[in-house]
């Protein structure tokens, strides 16, 4: 999807991806759009494969809040009772995608190091 269309979707409040990342990581519209602009400029590799992704790093407190709000029974089982409301700000990170030539496994790198986060999107992710 072209960046201009993504911006309209996010600005209109109809982007489920943005709403999710905003809720989980306290990401602002401006942050999301700035990083998505970089993502939308993915040059692709020689075979037309994606080379860029965005990751969302969240704090333990943000994870705890999400569990307490959306799955309180599981939070109770896990012993989650509270969270620090001053420590909910997540961070979007730019990821480079590489495909291991031997295993064909997709790997994600941030600042040259293997990234093992949980939340990832790319230009083909449904918004």
- SS summary, helix count: 5
Percent of residues in beta strands?
A: 15-25%
Structural class: alpha+beta
| Major pleated sheet | 5 strands, antiparallel
Q: Residue-averaged pLDDT, rounded? A: 94
* Share of helix, binned: 25-40%
Uncertain spans, ≥5 residues at pLDDT below 50?
none
| Sequence of secondary-structure elements | HHHEHHEEEE
What's the shape?
Answer: globular
Could you tell me how far the N terminus lies from the C terminus, measured between alpha carbons in angstroms? 9 Å
What's the count of strands? 5
Radius of gyration: 16 Å
Strand order of the main beta sheet, please?
A: 4-3-2-1-5
Helices, strands, pairings?
Elements lengths: L2 H9 L4 H10 L3 H12 L11 E6 L2 H11 L1 H7 L12 E9 L6 E5 L2 E2 L4 E3 L6
Helix pairs in contact: 1-3, 4-5
């Amino acid at each position: 999807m072209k960046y201009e269309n993504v911006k309209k979707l996010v600005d209109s409040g109809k982007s489920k991806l943005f709403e999710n990342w905003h809720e989980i990581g306290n990401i602002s519209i401006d942050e999301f759009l700035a990083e998505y602009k970089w993502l939308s400029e993915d040059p692709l590799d020689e075979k037309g494969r994606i080379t860029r992704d965005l990751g969302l790093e969240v704090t333990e407190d943000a994870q705890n809040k999400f569990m307490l709000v959306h799955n309180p029974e599981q939070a109770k089982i896990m012993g989650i009772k509270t969270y620090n409301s001053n420590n909910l700000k997540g961070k979007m990170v730019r990821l480079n995608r590489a495909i291991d030539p031997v295993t064909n496994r997709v790997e994600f790198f941030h600042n040259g190091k293997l990234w093992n986060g949980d939340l990832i999107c790319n230009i083909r992710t449904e918004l």
